[in-house]
Amino acid sequence: MTLLILWRHGQTAWNAGGRVQGQTDIPLSDLGVEQARAAAPRLAALTPTVLIASDLRRAADTQSALEALVGLPVRHDARLRERGFGDWEGLTHAEIGARWPESFARWKRGEPVVDAGVEEVDALSKRTATALQEAVDGAPDDAVIVAATHGAAARYATCALLGWPAEFAPTLGALHNCHSTHLLFDTVRGWQMLAHNVP
Length: 199
Description:
Blueprint: E1 2-8, H1 13-16, H2 30-44, E2 50-53, H3 57-70, E3 74-76, H4 93-99, H5 101-108, H6 121-137, E4 144-149, H7 151-162, E5 180-186, E6 190-198
Parallel strand pairs: 1-4, 2-3, 2-4
Antiparallel strand pairs: 1-5, 5-6
Helix pairs in contact: 2-3, 4-5, 6-7
InterPro entries: His_Pase_superF_clade-1, His_PPase_superfam, PG/BPGM_mutase_AS, PGM_Phosphatase
Binding site for substrate: 8-15, 58
Protein name: Phosphoglycerate mutase
């Protein structure tokens, strides 16, 4: 069995300011750096054997905190990036709601958004789940894989791996900064959810 831990990056200034980040490459804030350093020992205690990360700085730098403790190399994979939010990136929820009221309302309800250059959830689910399944398939059966990624990316990947419809992703609730989702892959029983939003 393989343990897969989806670890959301630490806080950024845009997180704190309520701005949509998407694939804009925002660094961790000072608080985000501290969050990563505080969480890393708890993940190190699980004896990870594989470290992967989104290539966006906020995820890569979060993973660096764990890398420093366990001494494993990190493989960066652009497929683990956050959902692309197109024209919404850098804007607050209020600004998006004012300019795209119908699309914003659909997004808040977990429904498809088809304008403003927002990435479709099917594409997001496919790219993230494919990257994670490849990591699992390439690791020993008893591997512990920590993947540093992003909130929406982790939720939609979780649904895709578990075989749940993408519409279920909002029911998982937001994955908090430096919290994690734990999944187990059994070659007989497939994917299983162990825990969500682990601090």
